[in-house]
Hints:
- The chain contains eight helices and 17 strands.
- It is of the alpha+beta class.
- The chain folds into three domains: 132 residues, no CATH class; 32 residues; 151 residues, Alpha-Beta Complex (Nucleoside Triphosphate Pyrophosphohydrolase), CATH 3.90.79.10.
- Strand 11 and strand 12 form a beta hairpin.
Amino acid sequence: MSGFGLVASPVLAGAPIVRDGLLRLDSARREASWAAAQVVVTDDRGRFPVDQADGPPRLRTYAAAGIAAAPPPDALLLGEADGVVYWGMQAPASASASAPSAADSGGDDPVHWLDLFTAGADFPAVHAALAATATALLNWHGRARFCARDGSPTHATNGGWARKCEAEQHEEYPRTDPAVICLVHDGADRVLLARQRVWPVGRFSVLAGFVEAGESLEACVAREMAEEVGVAVRDIGYLGSQTWPFPRSLMIGFQAVADPEAPLRLDDDEIVEAQWVTLDELRPALARTAWPAVGTTADGQLHLPGRLSIARTMIDAWALARTASGVPAQPHPRDSNS
């Protein structure tokens, strides 16, 4: 086995909502859409009201007409799905202060305030897309209150998809920072995993990094793999992408091949452990569903990213392809660095 492809879309890659650019520019149509629209609400901690009464968690949305007669100035036009127009709004801090949180239980109201990290992997596709879009837009608005060109205050326009400055009417649009994420394997049964300095012991994932100015995606893959773990990669191939609105990234997935016998040289500022892991060693970790929380005591086990991340989609796809290939594993020494 050498190359492989994703067998499922990353959780935050579906984007089944209709992004109507013309509607954003048409104030009359925007206001007319409000009467029958639904509103996705989030608080200042990035949490959403989630209904967990029956089955998987679902966003609880609210009738726009019950909130206001017309779109408030801070309302964000998220898009349309199944004939319904959705807007997003940030609730006052008091709205969720006394509401149930992820750690609460009991009570008659099945709604809890959960963030995208906690519940997003189990959302229906439309709800995941709405929550991701609302999170990304609100994060951008919170960081774009002043014009980058003249420093004057800015205000939202075009249904929340642009901001204009007061001094010169300069227009700015939501920022997205491209980042590559690459699953490095040996062409057979080993994959290279690493642990960032800020992660708990036992938490490993594939390698990633931001694209620099003037750099192609493939060049970024080669540079980041060399910088973070000191490996030279070849046969770089695209796998897929997904939004990562924490705060405004686009994760662009690749695979590449490297020599597992080459020594690993870690970037001590970011990476504290890296190791080649065989498929057999990976299987127990694939059966576990959650990363250990920050501050928890290490349990001596390997933990992989949760299903919300494209990293897990890539690892799952590699493991499935490796299993289906029937290539016999070869005896080899354990190559690791810590």
